[in-house]
Design a protein that fits this description.
heterodimer; A: 324 residues; two-stranded antiparallel ribbon; 14 helices; B: 563 residues; alpha/beta; Rossmann fold; six-stranded mixed beta sheet; 20 helices; globular
């Protein structure tokens, strides 16, 4: 098992290196960094000096090594647009995106798993058919349309909830959180719902499909035949076995939620990393785009590692070797 | 104790109700083992499921009474029925690999079941679980109980399953093919355990199986079923020894005996198969004979070793390779049948894959006639042995491409090896070959799913023969078939073999089947040859202890029962 994890860690390092290389290429080869940084009035000599100072004349491999080294030390460079350190910009936006992502994930799990179990156990029931229909509609509508519809109903027509921004936030040692104020929660509901609906549908359908398969398995039939109470049968026996494949998908989804919150963030003007990324694209702020890429990749890798660990926790077959 | 009267089970479908079980009656006393025997589709498992109330939806009991003691099982509501399951009736399933929850410790599964039915403390439940496992023959049960199912071997798992079925002292246990997935040695232990539980604890068993040998060995009474109906029932010795119903007689005739070799099984050919097949097949006959007229060649294996890389557990040390076959040497004489017999994991299928060039042996040589066969990928796609060695696989459902018509499946070897260039000629030859294997030539325009398992296996044989092989490898060709279909297929193979002098390597775990088929036999165990020689000699005077034990443990019928 240690070997398994070590293998995964090494793989992750390579993934991160590949992404760093992409980010570096973006920075180095999409346009000329020097002409991006300087205006028309800068002399050619000054441009050359700057090029030399920045080390842009060094060999390619050397530049990449330096880029990676800087990243590892937490030095992400400066934004073209605001002249601020990119690290600070990302750090100030990250809490908003993470909180949004976590709440969206929780919604999708807390609703999706029970709904999946229910629809699996009563496959022919009226409620099941209704749930399946509604979620199918939910998944067919693009995220931004759902967001706009939610804004229209709850924000404009009913006026219950704010339609943009994070509302009240509290600064906890550099982490701006909306979890501690009522306003913050109110502002969080609509974007989190928007972001979570698609994941919810996916989770529900996956849990349903897996659960239905598990319910047909021999060990469930055997447990039924020896009169194990129904509650235990469904939740202890069946659900645990259902979760093994479901966890992988949920893990990947969470990575996706973080990465693709861009649309939701722009609909709700949510000051997260996604919105920052959109602004950076508009101003061709390449250092920010590169770092965003690296940070998102890091989240994916991290979540996948956690998923692997969860696997090992849930499934004893990975933890304890077979009988010899 | 259990009384079933006029049980009828129906499955509603859009074409009206399908009757799966019709008018079946039986009774089981305490301590009695009642065998329920029949071929697939006989409805024997449905009877078991109906009694314990676990019929697959939408099946339902439409008529009859099921009484367990004084309780009318049909009158119970959902909750009463569930409370009774495990408490008074329990069940053992076929495959111990899949019937335990892989994510829960054995202890948790046992304790949970006991607590579901008995009002006792967790500690008391644990004590009972330990006692029970020890009674089942699991040593050091208190410690072993902490393990997960995958940490037990197949036989041990089935003991755990039996312990689970027994842990609440049920009156009746329905055992659905409890030993089918087990090797003979483990099977005989499990059967011994069941017999002992019936004798000592007075548990009634309903033993559902397709294996008449198992029934003959331990059942007190037996019911023979076919197409959902009861054919015959009574004490085992009477029903199997002096069968009255024609179907039972047929069934008994289809069982391959272990203690002697018979020329042909006395079974009526399947009436669903086209009779005109007999007259046809001239062209296919000429085709095969034409192939045989060339120089006869045999196959020689010299000191073949096969190893697989082990599972890496540490970063630093190279894993120990796993030896699948070691020092395998034997000769297959041209025109003879070589039987290869062994339990699961003995390397039988690895041997077949090595011969066909799917696996590269670590050492040793294979020679076909004068031709040395390279192993694994070293054997090119165009190597002549690709044509000369053909295979018939175990599972007839996955060995034919379901999206191809039979005609396309059969003509493939003909164009692939460039044997017949003309398309029309290929088609006629294929149709003719179908006749030779006892099928209607019209089958050429159908798809595999339109045929039963036995028919598909005939098609697989036809496909292999069309390549004009020198060596035909049959890897467990009848394991997935019912006993009467098995008898028909074995007859077909015997007929083809003697008519065309085919050289066959016949692989099976079933000692009786191998005895009926082979001239010579090799007994494999853990990748090593335990014994080899002419099969009559090996079966009559086995030299290796392992062979003796295998022969002893295989469930058989008294020879007087076999007509």
């Amino acid at each position: 098992m240690v070997f398994f994890l070590a293998k995964r860690l090494i793989q992750s390092v390579f993934v991160m290196l590949a992404v760093a290389f992409l980010a570096f290429s973006l920075f180095r080869f999409v346009g000329d960094p020097v002409s991006q940084m300087t205006g028309v009035e800068t002399s050619v000599q000054d441009q050359e000096r700057l090029r030399e100072d920045l080390g842009l004349n060094d060999p390619f491999a050397y530049q990449f090594a330096r880029f990676t080294g800087d990243m590892l030390r937490g030095d992400f460079g400066f934004s073209y647009r605001t002249r601020q350190p990119v690290a600070e910009m990302i750090a100030s936006r990250m809490p908003a995106t993470l909180e949004l992502g976590v709440v969206a994930l929780l919604i999708s799990l807390l609703v999706g798993i029970p709904a999946g179990v229910y629809t699996a156990l009563r496959p022919r029931g009226f409620a099941t058919q209704a749930i399946l229909m509604i979620t199918l509609v939910g998944v067919s509508i693009p995220t931004f349309v759902i967001g706009i519809m939610l804004i229209f109903f709850f924000g404009v027509q009913l006026g219950w909830l704010p339609t943009f921004g994070r509302g009240g936030t509290v600064n906890l040692g550099g982490w701006e959180t909306s979890f501690l104020t009522v306003d913050g929660w109110r502002a969080l509901i609509l974007p989190a719902l928007t972001l979570g609906v698609y994941q919810l549908t996916l989770t529900m359908r996956l849990v349903r499909a897996e659960m239905m398969e598990v319910m047909q398995s021999d060990y469930i039939r055997f447990a039924t035949a020896r009169g194990v109470p129904m509650g235990r049968l469904y939740f202890r026996h069946a659900l645990a076995n259902t979760m093994v494949p479901v966890i992988t998908i949920i893990g990947l989804q969470f990575g996706g939620v973080i990465a693709f919150s861009i649309v939701t963030e722009s609909v709700f003007q949510w000051p997260g990393m996604g919105l920052l990324f959109l602004e950076s694209i508009r101003f061709v702020d390449i250092p920010v785009m590169g770092v965003y890429l690296v940070v998102i990749a890091f989240f994916f890798v991290l979540v996948n590692l956690i998923v692997d660990l969860l696997y090992v926790l849930i499934d004893p077959r990975l933890r304890i070797s077979d009988v010899s | 104790m259990l009384r079933v009267e006029n049980l009828t089970v129906k499955f509603p479908s859009r074409f009206g109700d399908v009757t799966a079980v019709e008018d079946v009656s039986m009774s089981i006393d305490a301590g009695e083992i009642h065998g329920l025997v029949g071929e697939s589709g006989a409805g024997k498992s449905t009877v078991g499921a109906a009694i314990i109330g676990l019929l697959q939806s939408p099946g339902y009991v439409s008529d009859g009474t099921i009484m367990l003691g004084e309780t009318d099982l049909r009158s119970l509501d959902r909750f009463e029925a569930h409370a009774l399951r495990g408490k008074r009736i329990s069940m053992i399933f076929q495959d111990p690999q899949t019937s335990l929850n892989p994510l829960m410790r054995i202890e948790d599964q046992l304790v949970e079941t006991i607590l579901a039915h008995e009002d006792m403390s967790t500690a008391a439940a644990k004590t009972r679980a330990v006692d029970l496992l020890e009674e089942m023959g699991i040593e050091d049960a208190a410690a072993r109980m902490q393990s997960y199912p995958h940490q037990f071997s197949g036989g041990m798992r089935q003991r755990v399953v039996i312990a689970l079925a027994l842990c609440t002292n049920p009156e009746l246990i329905i055992a659905d093919e409890p030993t089918t997935a087990l090797d003979v040695a483990v099977q005989s232990q499990v059967l011994g355990l069941i017999r002992r539980l019936a004798d000592v604890r007075k548990v009634g068993f309903m033993l559902i199986t397709h294996d008449i040998g198992v029934i003959a060995q331990i059942a007190d009474t037996v019911t023979v079923m076919r197409h959902g109906k009861r054919i015959e029932s009574g004490p085992t010795a009477q029903v199997l020894g002096h069968p009255e119903a024609p179907y039972t007689k047929q069934l008994m005739a289809a069982v391959p005996p272990l203690d002697h070799k018979i020329d042909r099984f006395k079974v009526p050919e399947d009436d669903s198969m086209a009779a005109p097949g007999k007259s046809k097949g001239d062209r296919a006959e000429a085709w095969l004979l034409g192939g045989e007229r060339q120089v006869p060649i045999g196959l020689t294996l010299d000191n073949i070793d096969v190893t697989f890389p082990g599972v890496r557990t540490t970063i630093w040390r190279k894993p120990e390779p796993f030896t699948a076959l070691s020092g395998i040497s034997f000769d297959v004489r041209s025109g003879s049948v070589m039987g290869i017999v062994g339990e699961s994991g003995s390397g039988k299928s690895t041997l077949a894959k090595t011969l066909t060039g799917l696996i590269k042996p670590a050492g040793g040589t294979m020679t076909l006639g004068g031709l040395v066969l390279p192993g694994g990928k070293a054997r090119s796609r165009h190597h002549p042995s690709r044509q000369l060695i053909q295979m018939v696989f175990q599972d007839p459902f996955s060995s034919l491409n379901s999206r191809h018509k039979i005609g396309a499946i059969l003509s493939e070897p003909l164009w692939l090896y460039g044997l017949v260039k003309d398309k029309g000629e290929r088609r006629e030859l294929c149709a003719d070959m179908l006749g030779l294997v006892g099928m209607a030539p019209e089958a050429i325009n159908k798809y595999p799913h339109q045929f039963s398992g036995g028919q598909r296996q005939r098609i697989a044989v036809a496909r292999a023969l069309l390549a004009r092989p020198k060596i035909l490898i049959c890897d467990e060709p009848t394991s997935a078939l019912d006993v009467s279909i098995q008898a028909q297929l074995l007859n077909l193979l015997k007929d083809l073999q003697s008519a065309f002098g085919l050289t066959v390597i016949f692989i099976s775990h079933n000692l009786s089947v191998v005895r009926q088929m082979s001239d010579d036999v090799v007994v494999l165990r853990n990748g090593r040859i335990q014994e080899q020689g002419p099969s009559e000699r090996v079966y009559q005077e086995p030299e290796a202890d392992y062979t003796k034990r295998l022969l002893e443990l295989t469930p058989t019928m008294p020879s007087t029962w076999i007509q």
